[in-house]
Amino acid sequence: MAVRPVVRLPDPILKRPTAPVHAVDSAARAVAADLVDTMRASPACVGLAAPQIGVGVRAFALDVTGHRKARSCHGLVVLFNPEVLLAHGPSAGREGCMSVPDFTGEVARATTVVVRGITPDGDDRVLRADAFEARAVLHELDHLDGLLFLDRVSSHESVFRRQVYR
Fold first, then answer.
1. pLDDT of 103-148, one tens digit each?
2. 20 to 30 A from 104, CA-CA: which of 8, 36, 91, 95?
3. Would you say residue 165 has pLDDT above 60?
4. Nearest one of 82, 78, 95 to 35, comparing CA atoms
5. Active centre residues (catalytic)
6. How far is Cα 6 from Cα 9, in angstroms, rounded to an integer?
7. pLDDT at position 164
8. Which of 128, 49, 118 is nearest to 85 (CA)?
9. Is the confidence at residue 31, as pLDDT, over 90?
10. Cα(164)–Cα(156) distance, rounded to whole angstroms?
11. CA distance 101 to 8
12. pLDDT of 46-95, one tens digit each?
């Protein structure tokens, strides 16, 4: 559909909880397509949530295919109204975000997660992810609740300027 600009902090949409998707209709599928198109057009991006493209609904796209830290990999995943069914095994790891491009941070996240949501085809889907894919799922879910990785770091010493490679 369209590559949209990625919303950056301090845009207030990033701090607001999102609304549920009431029907997987053409408008919802258009948001899903825009999430995928924008994610694919963004180098090194493995996930994007609807608020990051300026849409306040509970939807995200994710694909960790080929990422060196991925163990589980479900390919391209788009979910509406995702909810965590199970999460365990917290571990700290470095995270970055398209909406906070100048910083990364150490964030403790569950290492295994089970999430349920609705696909763009309107089907229920349960996803069991671990390691990096679990971290990415939880990162995107936080966006749907108005949270950024900066809200999850333990202290300001856990935030780092992103390295720029030339």
1. 999 999 999 999 999 999 999 999 999 999 999 999 999 999 999 9
2. 36
3. no
4. 78
5. 140
6. 10
7. 60
8. 128
9. yes
10. 20
11. 8
12. 999 999 999 999 999 999 998 888 888 999 999 999 999 999 988 999 99
> Tokens standing for 5?
């600009």
Of 76, 86, 85, 84, nearest to 139 by C-alpha is 84
Instruction: Convert the chain into a string of H (helix), E (strand) and C (coil).
Output: CCCCCCCCCCCHHHHCCCECCCCCCHHHHHHHHHHHHHHHHCCCCCEEEHHHHCCCECEEEECCCCCCCCCCCCCCEEEEEEEEEEEEEEEEEEEEECCEEEEEEEEEEEEEEEEEEECCCCCEEEEEEEHHHHHHHHHHHHHHCCCCHHHCECCHHHEEECCCCC
What the block records as the tokens of 27 is 């408008």
Identity of residue 37: D
